[in-house]
Amino acid sequence: MRKKVIAGNWKMNMLPNEAINFINEFAPLVKDTNNEVILCVPYTDLFYALLHVQETNIKIGAQNMHWETTGAYTGEISAEMLKSINVDYVIIGHSERRQYFAETDETVNKKVKKALAVGLKPIVCVGETLQEKEEGKTANVITTQTKLALEGLSPENVKNTIIAYEPIWAIGTGKTATAQDANESIKTIRKEIEENYGKDVAECVIIQYGGSVKSTNAKELFTTSDIDGGLVGGASLKPEEFAKIVNFDKE
Ligand code: 13P
């Protein structure tokens, strides 16, 4: 059975002292979970976060990276740099990066390959806009994004990749896809992976849902057949609220 993987995406929030306070409050609340718990924090918090999650079950991720190892890329951070301080995960191709920072399916693919090559686990985001949804293009958009993001990867590498299905219209809007719709979209993504890499790989790949996940809807979403956890934005900024999401399967 696939593990549930619940990741917080702090986006551009939290100073180091806030990150430390968060972890000190959050860690005891999630210490008994069997779910994978990840905090994807800003670059400036990485080092502090890594220090403070030692001796806990919390893993740390970054929110972006460059595909080159070194060079004249002012302002960029490489996969090797993240790996060198023991970061485990990295979000790649978040819709905010595609929308505001001109990321394309091609750069997403380069980043995914590089992350895997250095031993980072990529969390690759795919998802349709409201217009695409209204035009009935959801399945087409998400299968194309998935295919292009994973192009050229070995089946083993695909198994080590997490996909986050994040409908853009549900991000930060308070509008959540229904559990049934999100599950159907995720089944569509899994089918695409099965067609290219086989059933064994498709059954192993973790596919999360993201977009206005809260403690009040986490259980309904995460107990469907194909949703393997979540990528959580706003609700991951509050320790108690995020802990409730991680512990959705308790009590
Ligand atoms: P919200 O949970 O704030 O809608 O953000 C979702 C998201 O973008 C996570 O990557």
Strand-helix topology:
Layout: E1 5-9, H1 16-30, E2 36-40, H2 43-52, E3 58-62, H3 79-84, E4 89-92, H4 95-100, H5 105-118, E5 121-126, H6 130-134, H7 138-150, H8 155-159, E6 162-165, H9 179-197, H10 199-204, E7 207-210, H11 218-222, E8 229-232, H12 239-246
Parallel strand pairs: 1-2, 1-8, 2-3, 3-4, 4-5, 5-6, 6-7, 7-8
Helix pairs in contact: 1-2, 1-12, 5-7, 7-9
The structure holds 1,3-dihydroxyacetonephosphate (13P).
Residues 9, 94, 166, 171-172, 210-213, 231-235 line the site of 1,3-dihydroxyacetonephosphate (13P).
Structural overview:
45% of the residues lie in helices and 15% in strands. The protein is of the alpha/beta class and 251 residues long. The chain has a single domain (5-250), classed as Alpha-Beta Barrel (TIM Barrel). Strand 2, helix 2 (43-52) and strand 3 (58-62) form a beta-alpha-beta unit. Helix 1 (16-30) runs parallel beside helix 12 and helix 5 crosses helix 7 (138-150). The radius of gyration is 17 Å and the shape is globular. The chain binds 1,3-dihydroxyacetonephosphate. 1,3-dihydroxyacetonephosphate (13P) binds next to strand 8. The site of 1,3-dihydroxyacetonephosphate has 14 residues, from strand 8.
Under CATH, the homologous superfamily reads Aldolase class I
Bound molecules: 1,3-dihydroxyacetonephosphate
How many independent structural domains? 1
Total number of beta strands? 8
The rounded Rg comes to: 17 Å
The CATH class assignment is Alpha Beta
Q: What is the overall shape?
A: globular
Summed over residues and divided by their number, the pLDDT gives a mean of: 97
Order of SSEs, N→C?
A: EHEHEHEHHEHHHEHHEHEH
Question: What is the third-level CATH name, the topology?
Answer: TIM Barrel
Report the sheet with the most strands, covering strand number, pairing sense and barrel closure.
8 strands, parallel, barrel
Please state the second-level CATH architecture. Answer: Alpha-Beta Barrel
Strand content: 5-15%
- Please give the share of residues in helix: 40-55%
First-residue to last-residue Cα separation: 21 Å
- How is the largest sheet built, in terms of strand order? 1-2-3-4-5-6-7-8
Low-confidence stretches: none
By secondary-structure content and strand pairing, the structural class works out as: alpha/beta
Helix segment tally: 12
